[in-house]
Each structure stands twice: as C-alpha cells, then as structure tokens.
Amino acid sequence: MTSQDTMTTREQSLRAKVRELCADWDYEPRCDAWGGEADPAFSQELGRRGLLALTWPKDLGGAAESNLTRLAVTEELLRAGAPVSYHWAGERQIGPTLIRHGSRALQDEFCPRLARAEISFALGMSEPDAGSDLAAVRTTATRTDEGWVINGRKVWTSGAHFADYLYVLARTSKSEDRHAGLSEFVVDTSAPGVHVQPIIGMDGGHHFNEIVFDEVHVPDRWLIGTEGHGWQQVISQLAFERGGPERFLSMYPLLGAVLDTGVLDDTDRAALRGLTAQLTVLRSLARNIAADLDAGRSPVAQAATSKYLGNRLELAMLDFVRPLLSRCDGRVRALFDAAVIASPKSGLRGGAAPVMLSIVTKEMQ
Ligand SMILES: Cc1cc2nc3c(=O)[nH]c(=O)nc-3n(C[C@H](O)[C@H](O)[C@H](O)COP(=O)(O)OP(=O)(O)OC[C@H]3O[C@@H](n4cnc5c(N)ncnc54)[C@H](O)[C@@H]3O)c2cc1C
C-alpha cells in the first residue's frame, strides 16, 4: 500500500524495521488494535528499536525527526494490526502536549519514560455531560498550598485500567466564558481518591472505564502549561488525536487479509479501486497534517476532515468485504466479525461525526 516514489530512504528503513518486528512477534493481527488489548512488552520493544517518540527532542528520549517520518511507523503498525494500545495515547498526544506546553521539569519527568513505553497514559477528557460539548467539563481542580485537589468524574476513559497516569482536563475557575478557566493535569491512577471502574462493552470486552476523583491531591508541577489555558491547549492536542492514520487504517488488517486470499474477481477489483482512491487521498491528507504539525501549526480542520472521511472509508471497507465472506477462510471471517463489533466506535471516539463536520464548516466561513 505504500508508494515507493514518495518515500524517503529513512521512511523505507523504518517501515522495514516495523515489518521485521511484527514478523518476529507472536500476536494475532487485529482490526482496531490501537484501541485493543495492551501488550507492554511489544510497545517496549518498539521503544528499544527506536520506533517510538521519533519526533521528540533527543534529550527527552526522541530522535528529533519529523512527523512525516513518524507517519511511516504508525502506518506500518496499523497495517500489521499490531498490539500498540499500551503506548498509543501517550506517544501520540501526551508526549507532544508536554513538549508543546509543559514545563521542562514535567517533560523530564515523563517524556523519556513514555519514549521507552515504561509508562502508559489514558485520556480523561469526556464526562457524563461533556462529550461533544467538551467545554461543559465539570471536574474541578482547586488550588491548595501544595498543589491542587481534583474532584469529579470522567467517563469512556479507554485503557485507564492499565494506565499508570491520566491526562485530566479540569475546571480551575468559573467564568462566563465556558472556554476559559480550564486547565490540564497529570494524575497518578494509583493516587488515593482515584477510583477506576470498568465499563464492560456489549461484546463483553473491557475497553472503557469510568473514573471518580474524590479529593485527589496533585502536585503543582503536574499542571500542564498555563492555568486557565486548558481549552487552547486541548484543541491543539486534538489535532494529534484526530489527524493520524488510525482514523482510516483501523480496518486495514481485514482488507489486507482478504487481498491475501486471492478471491477477488474483476467486479471486486473494480470496487477495490474506489477504496484505493479514497485511501490514497486520506494518506495524502495525513501527510499534509504531519507537515503542519512539523511547522508548529494545529491543523484542527484538516484533522476533523480526516477523521470524518476516514470513518466513512472504514465502513465502506466492511461493505466491500461482506459479500466476499463466503469465499474467504475462517481467519478473514473472524477478523470481519471483530471489525463489525468495533465499527460503531470510530464515529464517536475522538469526537462525533456531526461535530467533525461542524468544525470543518466553521473553518470554511
Ligand atoms: C471507542 C471510544 C473510545 C473513547 N475513548 C475516550 C477516552 O479515552 N477519553 C475520553 O475522554 N473520551 C473517550 N471517548 C468518548 C468520546 O470522546 C465521546 O463519546 C465523544 O466525544 C461523544 O461524546 P458523547 O459520547 O458524550 O456523545 P454526545 O456528545 O452526547 O453526542 C451524542 C450524539 O449526538 C450528536 N451530537 C452531539 N453534539 C452535536 C452537535 N453539536 N451537532 C450535531 N450532532 C451532535 C452526535 O452525533 C452524537 O452521536 C471514547 C469514545 C469511544 C466510542
């Protein structure tokens, strides 16, 4: 699926390294693997082989490379359906957020360990009444002599049951303007007063959690960036969250498995060309987003576009595979079943589809 012409030698070498590790590793390729079971050992091996935190400064455990270069690694991992969930959120957006907004001490405390996948982060943004409308966050952080005390509730927190730390968006002051008075924090999941409760999915899987914060003490040094600037900071974080290839490659392991079976006839191949065209456009958009991130910009509308169109492409991949199932083996059928169960997630996580459209529309006005 890669175009050799547009890849640098470095990108080709990184892709080869990822393929080599995936070939050696004992795992079952999955759709939506970045939202699946955690395999800390796999993530740590990626870190050892220099395949994590590529864009971060060298003195924070990175390689000072571009987001375009990193894209080669993330695309390959998703293509292979590799077990990446342990490091995904931390490497994708928490490290970059700390590097953009955090104090040097905060960066030193967390980035090198994130780069080695020694620790995992979960994202505490959504609340029972604050999902699409994130500015409605009601969790509070109140200043004390030593730092902050957090009270409130987060919901749909993916991977909080294996995460060591949480990113938490909380209200630090009341204001007429709902976008003012928000701040970002790091919270230790094992701190007294943090209660992580599982939410079991309809498929019986444990992916989400609800988290209650009951008088949770957080040191002042774990405030990320500037008090009261949480809204501006989280918006720039969402470009990292929404603009990556996981928004259109989560179902690729299924498509790849179908192609491997060699069951396509001429009609199927004609339909496949439509999917390939969409995939090519989205990959090109991901490269534009990566280039914008490299330039220090926050490509919020482009990321929302990628997320919206990527979701549609993933659903189209399922529609493409469905009529082929009777010609496929049990492995493809198992991948398909799991992909169908995972498919409703894509339209919601990271922001609901209508909200993505509204972001894009605002940008055009
Ligand atoms: C798989 C998955 C993983 C997730 N992981 C995390 C996580 O790790 N951390 C975290 O903080 N959150 C997480 N979430 C939560 C996710 O961010 C929210 O589900 C999402 O923002 C939508 O919020 P909501 O569920 O409260 O739905 P609501 O905001 O209540 O929206 C419900 C429906 O109303 C529609 N709607 C809402 N507002 C508008 C509008 N302005 N215009 C038009 N239509 C609208 C939408 O179509 C949506 O389907 C996850 C969600 C999923 C599905």
Describe this structure in words.
This protein is of the alpha+beta class. It folds into 3 domains: 4-119, Butyryl-Coa Dehydrogenase, subunit A, domain 1 (Orthogonal Bundle); 122-229, Beta Barrel (Butyryl-CoA Dehydrogenase, subunit A, domain 2), CATH 2.40.110.10; 243-364, Butyryl-CoA Dehydrogenase, subunit A, domain 3. It contains 12 helices and 8 strands. It has helices at residues 9-24, 40-48, 67-79, 85-101, 104-115, 230-242, 246-249, 252-261, 266-294, 300-321, 330-346, 353-364; strands at residues 121-124, 140-143, 147-154, 165-171, 182-188, 194-200, 206-219, 223-224. The chain has a 4-stranded mixed sheet with strand order 1-4-5-8, with helices on one face. Helix 4 (85-101) runs antiparallel to helix 5 (104-115), helix 4 packs across helix 6 (230-242) and helix 8 runs antiparallel to helix 11. The mean pLDDT is 95. The chain binds flavin-adenine dinucleotide. One of its GO terms (molecular function) is acyl-CoA dehydrogenase activity. Residues 122-216 form the Acyl-CoA oxidase/dehydrogenase middle domain. Its cofactor is FAD. One of its GO terms (cellular component) is plasma membrane. This is Acyl-CoA dehydrogenase, N-terminal domain protein.
CATH architecture of the largest domain: Up-down Bundle
| Secondary structure tally: strands | 8
Helix content: 40-55%
| Major sheet summary line | 4 strands, mixed
Shape call:
globular
Number of domains: 3
List low-pLDDT spans.
none
Q: What's the CATH topology label of the largest domain?
A: Butyryl-CoA Dehydrogenase, subunit A, domain 3
Query: Are any ligands bound, and if so which?
Result: flavin-adenine dinucleotide
Terminus-to-terminus distance: 35 Å
Strand order of the largest sheet: 1-4-5-8
Structural class: alpha+beta
Residue-averaged pLDDT: 95
State the CATH superfamily name of the largest domain.
Answer: Butyryl-CoA Dehydrogenase, subunit A, domain 3
* SSE pattern: HHHHHEEEEEEEEHHHHHHH
Proportion of residues in β-strands:
5-15%
Question: According to CATH, what is the class of the largest domain?
Answer: Mainly Alpha
InterPro entries: Acyl-CoA_DH_CS, Acyl-CoA_Oxase/DH_mid-dom, Acyl-CoA_Oxase/DH_mid-dom_sf, AcylCoA_DH/ox_N, AcylCoA_DH/ox_N_sf, AcylCoA_DH/oxidase_NM_dom_sf, Mycobact_Acyl-CoA_DH
Domain Acyl-CoA dehydrogenase/oxidase N-terminal: 9-118
GO molecular function: acyl-CoA dehydrogenase activity; flavin adenine dinucleotide binding
Pfam family, one: Acyl-CoA_dh_N
